[in-house]
Amino acid sequence: MRKVTAARLSESKATIPHYYPQQSIAMDNVNKLRKSLNTIANGAYRISVNDFMIMVATPALRDVPEINRLMPEESQGCSFTISNLGMYGISSLSAIINPLHAAILSVGVTEQKLVLDESSEKGFKTADVMSVQLSADHRVVDGATGALFLKAFKGYLENPLTLIL
């Protein structure tokens, strides 16, 4: 199976024009909501950061449907993938698009960083920040569309309660 995967991804990298917009996302609100939901669950289930990535990708793809511009006959089941290596401590990665997909979203680890905060007396605060990178097929997803998708994805993660609206 690894030989087939290696061959397909090598072909993909050689034939698909990739581009890689990146985005930093404040994760404080998601982390608070996740902690609350897991406390309420009382061990019955555990919501992971990866669960939120999937929950947020769905409305972001709905908001920017151009990410799914492959024709049905060109795709076998999906046109978008999420690769989360953040759970292994990886800060960021440039994923290779799976053949027949339009894009893959790479998710990095959430790290504490100093960020500007005009409301703070010091002018900065510590925040949980995650890095994501979209690898997109430039033949079907132009740069502006990739940027719009990342903006929508970031918006849902930074304001997770909008998922229930």
Explain the overall architecture:
It is a single chain. With 165 residues, the chain is of the alpha+beta class. It has one domain (2-164): Chloramphenicol Acetyltransferase (2-Layer Sandwich). It is built from four helices and five strands; from the N terminus they run αββααβββα. It has helices at residues 2-15, 28-41, 49-63, 143-158, and strands at residues 18-19, 22-26, 80-84, 103-116, 124-137. Strands 1, 2, 3, 4 and 5 form a five-stranded mixed β-sheet that branches. α3 crosses α4. The longest helix is centred in the last third of the chain and has 16 residues, at 143-158. Keywords: Acyltransferase, Pyruvate, Transferase. Its EC number is 2.3.1.12. It comes from Linderina macrospora. This is Pyruvate dehydrogenase complex dihydrolipoamide acetyltransferase component (E2).
The first-to-last residue Cα distance is: 42 Å
Radius of gyration, taken over Cα atoms and rounded to an integer in Å: 17 Å
Gross morphology is: globular
CATH architectural name: 2-Layer Sandwich
Describe the main β-sheet briefly.
Answer: 5 strands, mixed
Share of β-strand residues: 15-25%
What structural category do the secondary elements indicate?
Answer: alpha+beta
Q: Considering the protein shown, what is the CATH homologous superfamily?
A: Chloramphenicol acetyltransferase-like domain
Order of helices and strands: HEEHHEEEH
